Input
Amino acid sequence: MSTVSNISSAQIFLQPKQDLASLAGALGSGDVKGAQNALTAFEADLQNVQKATSASALPVNLSTDLQQLQGALSSNDLASAQSLFNNFLQDLQHAKGSQAHHHHHHHQAYAENSPQVPNSINIMA
Output
């Protein structure tokens, strides 16, 4: 039974990636309606991921990118939508990078406690 839940959780993470891929494809082919649908699907799937993983909401700059992208699409401004989508992807890479960086801080905080070990050695000396 556990394999079924694994598939669904993997699917949860796959879905936004597929939405972004179809969004990129729609923007590339000039399909504004398709891009709008893909963006709507992406945001819905993103919320599902956040619910399933209790992840926090998107960083502010990413939400802003998405809002601007929606605005460009709703006004049929394909050129702006394409450049905004590229901005979003770049910000997404930075967000992923800073999250990875964030995990480093946990290790540093852990390391800050370790000087207690040499102290105990000094006491014994």
The helical segments are 2-28, 32-53, 60-74, 78-113, 116-124. The domain at 2-100 is CATH 1.20.120 (Four Helix Bundle (Hemerythrin (Met), subunit A)).
